[in-house]
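U., I forgot to send this yesterday:
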Amino acid sequence: MSNSISRAIFLAAILAVRLSAQDHSAQAQGAAAHHDMPGMSMPDSAKTDTTSDQGKNGPPEGEDAAAQSMSSMDHHHMDMGAHMKMTQLHDRKPGDEARAAKVADTARQVAEKYTDYHTALNDGFKIFLPDVPQKQYHFTNYRYAAEAAFGFNPEHPTSLLYEKQDAGYKLVGVMYTAPKRLTEDDLDQRIPLSVAQWHEHVNYCAPPASLTREEKRAQMLGPQAKFGLRGSIAAQEACDAAGGTFRPVIFNWMVHLYPFEKTPEAIWSAERQHDHND
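Result:
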């Protein structure tokens, strides 16, 4: 019986990894569009949006529609644009600072191991869209991503965050993920929400499958983008009218931290977490 259970858990983890890979491929559309990445070459798997429980932002055209879309967001969250939502800071509870500091210390130890990005590659981290210019490159470990679907291990960040340099990459942070099904209370158990703010990507409209790759790029990356995480469409009705596929939430919960910084505010900076998508 124990062998059957272990096999079932293993198969579930493998499935989570595969779904996570699909989510990351779909993110090539949204993340690239939001970063305004020139020369974007979308993988075939990014042509249609996929969602999963495992996993790193305008509204419909017109100011009235934009205001309506923004105001419809859950008031328990911090609005960071029509396509990104962050948890609001909670009241501080006894022990929160110590718990958060322990996570940051562990993240720092992990980060020190991977200051040389070659070590990360050798340990199974994969560069997401290496040929696309980005502010921060996610080196993702899909085994850790699958593990994060079942629990939180600060020694196993889903992604390492690097900035591109002439000689390679400079490590600046790490990213943890959590299933999008989790509540804020669940997230608080992983990292105190009085210190950290998790984010999720919302109101995503994938372009119609009938468009060519070039047309999709123009509609997601161009100055008049309609689709993706930079598009003007941020509501179900507008997405349906444009022939797209609407997803209220895509990917999982994510939180960035910058363990080499000196203060808790800098380590858990919500502004920097959001700014990497600008």
